Amino acid sequence: MNRTLSSPSPEAFGTDPWKTRIDRTFARALVLPLVLAIGLLVLLLGDTLYRSVSVQVVRADEGPGRTYPFGLAATEVLRQELLARGYTEEEARSLLQDPTERRVLFLQNRVELMWNTQEGPFRYVVTGLRDERVADFSLLEGLRRWEELKAGLGEGERLVLNPWLDQSFLTRTPSRSPLTAGIGVAIWGTIWVLSLALLIAIPVGIGTAILLEEYLREGTLNRILEVNLRNLAGVPSIVYGLLGLAIFVREMGLGPTILSAALTLGLLGIPVIVVTARESLRAVPESLRQAAFALGATRRQVVFRVVVPAALPGMVTGVILSAARLIGEAAPLLLVGAAAYVPFYPTGPLSEYTVIPVQIYLWVSMNIPEFARVAAAGILVMLLVLSGLYFLALYLRNRFRREW
Amino acid sequence: MVSLEMLKEHETVRTAPVSEAEALVDVRGLSLWYGKKQALYDISVRFPRNQVTAIIGPSGCGKSTLLRSLNRMNDLVPGVRVEGEVLYEGVNIYDPRVDPVAVRRHIGMVFQKPNPFPKTIFENVAFGLRLMGVKGSELEDRVVEALKRAALWNEVQDRFKKESGLRLSGGQQQRLCIARAIAVEPPLLLMDEPTSALDPIATQAIEDLIQELKTRYTVVIVTHNMQQAARVSDRTLFMHLGVLVEEGPTEVLFTKPKHPYTEAYITGRFG
Fold first, then answer.
1. SUPFAM superfamilies in the record, alphabetically (chain B) (predicted)?
2. What stretches of chain B show up as alpha helix (H) in DSSP?
3. CA distance A326 to A119
4. What is the mean pLDDT of residues A370-383?
5. Are B127 and A305 in contact (CB < 8 Å)?
6. How far is A392 from chain B (nearest CA, A)?
7. Residues 6+ apart with CB under 8 A from A98
8. How many CA atoms lie within 13 A of B139 on its CB side?
9. A310, closest residue in chain B (CA to CA)
10. Which of A216, A248, B70, B198 has the smallest number of Cβ neighbours within 10 A?
11. pLDDT digits (tens, 9 = 90+) for A184-199
12. DSSP 3-state assignment of A14?
């Protein structure tokens, strides 16, 4: 036994190369699912983006299939198109000045900005309801064969690089023709349904959370409700759809309207809001309640002047996340009557409606191949809205972050 | 070595008892139960006006429970039961006709850990005043006055309307809590180990503050630090196992304790 500490070396502490190696391997293995998830997401997004752009040859129903320079107003483009179709200056002006005629014209024709055309990049085309697709190529193939396609254009045909997700897509009504279909009605339907659903779910959800967490703190009722709420938050949404169909659509006679959809989604959103609001109320330290009580506040004053303001950021985040879930719901709304084809914008809680995910579902199941392009553009809109909501939640969480 | 039975046999040892006229708070035969467990045994004691009374004793002896029964904070604990009377200015605050919320508006309280609201310094101090319906320039004046009295004004005067109370240091937060408690001018101020979470310098500042406060307020302070009790208080109560063992002027209790348990505790033989 002649070990001394006279020559200290790192090994003096003892090493275990195997344990270190296992540790490192384990840490790396944990990263794998994350990489996989991110990879899949990027793949999905990339694929959707790729499918939402295509090269097309379209034969115009009327007119020469010409294009118009970038920067013109939509009305001006339409006027020039009318002239090109053989209307006189006089007729075109009177058609565009009459509000009814003008609306019909814009319904029947879609003024679109194309990334590239046979006449040069970034030009407008006017797509009519009866315009006919000659060919549709994916982005890479279309670009490779661009010159060949351009050379082979017939009378009244145009060659375009079409980004399906464009401004007119966002404002158009649905259509039987993929060339003129738009998501505008579905966007407004979503806005109506979601805001009404939140109008129902937020007061009920937050109120329930406050009641359970601040007034009935410990009790059998509270424990039973706790378990049930967590279970309700996990019930498949189609079950809520069945409930909505039975109660709101049939029993209450609301029919397939925005109101019955909003009531159904409201029910679906309540458990999630209750659970998140309770978590954030529970995170408010007991010492704050004690301080407020000691200053002579009543229970109501303690709850609404101290506890709720302190818990608000968490509650808001919960509401937004629940809204993000509700936006993506298609299944319950298919049951309570989101319509397949709604060519007009919703006017009130009792109008017919469709929402973005239902619209996407319907487009995907169409048998005209170009509806896949329309659906891809719809999915992109959906993703944009969702990520907007997530960023809002993130922003609010950071904005109101507190240290106790 | 000290059993509850032995303690209960003894009468509380009282040196220089407080007369009824001097007392702001008069506790008469107070017993308290948390569920089935009894926490206070038949406590009778008077707290004199404009003096600092310290309550000392080992952990779990009921110091905080006694303090909290003076402003009915114990009512918030589920399953609590109280017997006996607490006379505040001659009125029994446990009378069924008395509203506990109103009681708490007359009696300020400072807690063990600083607990400012996640609001601005101004809003923290204004909280109690707003509950009383004070508004406008009067509100502002009284907030400033309270901050000055809590010796916090010089440090926060340039930012008290914008900065969150949570951004202050621990000692400043505790002084903010004192300002919040005294803003409504409560005649009685209860302090539950107000310096136990603070460093020595912040503790010193709070102790100095307590000395100044007693000219205007009656202070009852719970502490587990005997030196602190000796430094800041005029009278001291020694409790053990829920029983009030001895009470008297601080210098007497610390130099010539009459009860053997008091002596054992202050000389550090148990606790």
1. P-loop containing nucleoside triphosphate hydrolases
2. 4-9, 63-69, 100-106, 121-131, 136-149, 153-156, 170-182, 200-213, 226-232, 250-255, 260-266
3. 44
4. 92
5. yes
6. 22
7. none
8. 16
9. B118
10. A216
11. 899 999 999 999 999 9
12. coil
Cα Rg of chain A (Å, integer): 29
pTM value is 0.81
pLDDT digits (tens, 9 = 90+) for A305-323: 999 999 988 898 889 889 9
Question: Residue A404: what pLDDT?
Answer: 44
How many residues in chain B?
271
Residues in chain A with CB shorter than 8 Å from the CB of B166 are 402-404
Neighbours of A194 (CB within 10 A): 23
Q: Could you tell me which residues of chain A have a Cβ less than 8 Å from any Cβ in chain B? A: 217-218, 285, 287-288, 290-298, 301, 305-306, 309-310, 402-404
Tell me the β-bridge partners of B47.
Answer: B25
Considering the four listed CATH numbers 2.60.260.20, 3.40.190.100, 1.10.3720.10, 3.40.1110.10, the one that applies to the domain covering A182-398 is 1.10.3720.10
Closest partner CB to A296 (pick from B113, B116, B128): B128
Name the 3-class secondary structure at B219. strand
- Sign, CA dihedral A273-A275-A278-A284, equals negative
Please report how many Cα atoms fall inside a 13 Å half-sphere around the Cα of residue A294, on the Cβ side: 29
Handedness of CA A175, A176, A181, A183 (dihedral sign): positive
Total number of residues shown for chain A: 404
Q: Which of B101, B108, B115 sits opposite A287 (nearest CB)?
A: B115
Q: In chain A, what residues touch B71 (CB-CB under 8 Å)?
A: 294
Does A296 contact B184 at a Cβ distance shorter than 8 Å? yes
Show residues of chain B in contact with A291, CB under 8 Å: 111, 115-117, 177, 180
ipTM: 0.91
The Cα of A289 is separated from the nearest Cα of chain B by a number of Å equal to: 9
Cα A396 from Cα A315, distance rounded (Å): 10
CB A269 within 8 A of CB A206: no
Q: Where in chain A is the domain with CATH 1.10.3720.10?
A: 182-398
Q: Tell if the CB–CB gap between B115 and A403 is shorter than 8 Å.
A: no
Instruction: Tell me the β-bridge partners of B219.
Output: B52, B189
* pLDDT tens string A106-147: 888 888 888 888 888 888 888 888 888 888 899 999 999 998
